[in-house]
Amino acid sequence: MTKSYHVAVVGATGAVGTQMIELLEEAATFKIKQVSFLSSIRSAGKKLAFRGEEVIIQEATPESFEGVDIALFSAGGSVSKALAKEAVKRGAIVIDNTSAYRMDPTVPLVVPEVNEKALFSHNGIIANPNCSTIQMVAALEPIREAFGLNRIIVSTYQAVSGSGVSAIQELKDGSRAVLDNKEFTPQIMPVKGDKKHYPIAFNALPQIDVFTENDYTYEEMKMINETKKIMEDNTIKVSATCVRIPVVSGHSESVYIEVDKDGVSAKDIQNALKNAPGVVLEDDPANQVYPQAVSAAGKKEVFVGRIRADIDDSKGFHMWIVSDNLLKGAAWNSIQIAESLVKLAII
Amino acid sequence: MTKSYHVAVVGATGAVGTQMIELLEEAATFKIKQVSFLSSIRSAGKKLAFRGEEVIIQEATPESFEGVDIALFSAGGSVSKALAKEAVKRGAIVIDNTSAYRMDPTVPLVVPEVNEKALFSHNGIIANPNCSTIQMVAALEPIREAFGLNRIIVSTYQAVSGSGVSAIQELKDGSRAVLDNKEFTPQIMPVKGDKKHYPIAFNALPQIDVFTENDYTYEEMKMINETKKIMEDNTIKVSATCVRIPVVSGHSESVYIEVDKDGVSAKDIQNALKNAPGVVLEDDPANQVYPQAVSAAGKKEVFVGRIRADIDDSKGFHMWIVSDNLLKGAAWNSIQIAESLVKLAII
């Protein structure tokens, strides 16, 4: 008999939590016997529909995880720090979409297309990588497997939905204010709770998350460190510049790579991606075919195009990688991890 | 007695022409005895104010340039091809803001802060570089002078105003349609007259200008070739990915460079830029100070920030370069060339 699972979603009313519930309802391949939708006390008591039935949102407490098999966390790092181990203690496997445990050496950081096998070494918690990292490594792993990978330089064009529902609203309100020639005072972007706020409407902000001591932002350091951990290779050179642009959903990335192997062509790179899992090649410049944030939004795949050889370095290639940051970049990757746990009989 | 000049503006009603006229009126340091505002027959007859007097726009013909000393062209490549040599024949020096003559080896391609002396070798036509190139070389030249420059990898975040007045309108109309949940069919972006058109509102388009045979766009090849020509060094490795984003004015650029010299620090790079002509250092991450498109709009300088050492390559540095693409990227650089011609007594 097929096993069936009790799944909890922590942060059920957030931008990512909402997507998780939708994917559990429509896309997940494992059997679900029960769901628990958990949140802060503020949203507790609200009702959500799930497969035709009403589910009352409950406040997330240690006891909420009694009987839960899979707990999907996406309610901020502090909630994960407070409750993930409580869930594990009660027998759940936690799939954590915050940055709380990503760099913990005892916690696997997983993109199923890249390092599914790392799941076997879990100790109860599995971390879901940062959105901008996931789409990049999903697109680059098939290239790395075929030709080796020596270096990555990425500049991102990130959507505001990564900052949550209120950031989307600020982009919309700020855009309308500019169009109507009205005043608008930003209060969220680039980083909720940081000292200064700047307009994201009709602007580009080279700051995502706060700055670290080396003048990179945390977002940039996440891309650098997580890529090495997921690819299980600390020798890959990775550098990142992370930029927020006025897009609602869909992160785009301009990526330069250097492969190890000699004599690789742009065509070889395209062929490596053509049948890669979770990757869609959209690369036909003659017909103006290339990935775009608006066309990737709502889709689960990672889209790659504009693949071309560097003019000066025979091992260098440029490309344009786009994916829905709330789906493959967050909710969908978490559900995929759950599917992998079931498929590999880890749970 | 100070010389005084008859200045013609070709393309007087365009996005750049309008800025040129404003700068001639308010900022130019040379004396102007007469202006001619020229356009296609469509705008001929319209009136523009200049220093309190009415100037009637005239159709640009070969005869329009009789008596003209300085002719500023910004009406598209075909107009420059048709009329620039006619102007030179009649004694004018042409400063051409189109791509028509930029790579002509007999035509100097000039950013005054970088290669003003190239003006001495002019044969009547001087080319104004592409907007995205100008701001990059203005920021990188002081670094190159101090430490040498081996490599540039740039990803751009370009404003729509580079595509003209109708593109700005399309961004505004498209944005409002999205906010109002209405249908909108783009007809201009990414490239006027190309086969397909895509929304620029809340999107990022990795295509500026049409594609060339090597799958780079013309815009990307302009940045690559023009940088080498302006810096008078064909050995510098340059690669570019050019992307249009929903910003009205102000191009931003994520730039990675490798210097020649050993032991250079991010602080050294900052110091090289601190007093560089036309460059403003805005680089204080602890206080969230970095260049932004919306704050650079309307200003003549090139703004540089987010300067930091690459983590893996001791000669590598990252930075964020922003400037108003219609001013330093076009109109202001043209006026500066005219000022240099006067200052160097070439005219």
UniProtKB/TrEMBL annotation, chains A, B:
Listed binding positions for phosphate are 102
**A Pfam family that the UniProt record links to this protein:** Semialdhyde_dhC
Provide the GO MF annotations for this entry: aspartate-semialdehyde dehydrogenase activity; NAD binding; NADP binding; protein dimerization activity
User: In this protein, which residues make up the domain named Semialdehyde dehydrogenase NAD-binding?
Assistant: 6-122
Enumerate the residues binding NADP(+): 13-16, 42-43, 161-162, 325
PROSITE patterns in the record: ASD (PS01103)
Q: Which domain of life is it from?
A: Bacteria
How does this polypeptide assemble, per the annotation? Answer: Homodimer.
Q: What is this protein called?
A: Aspartate-semialdehyde dehydrogenase
Question: What organism is this sequence from?
Answer: Listeria swaminathanii
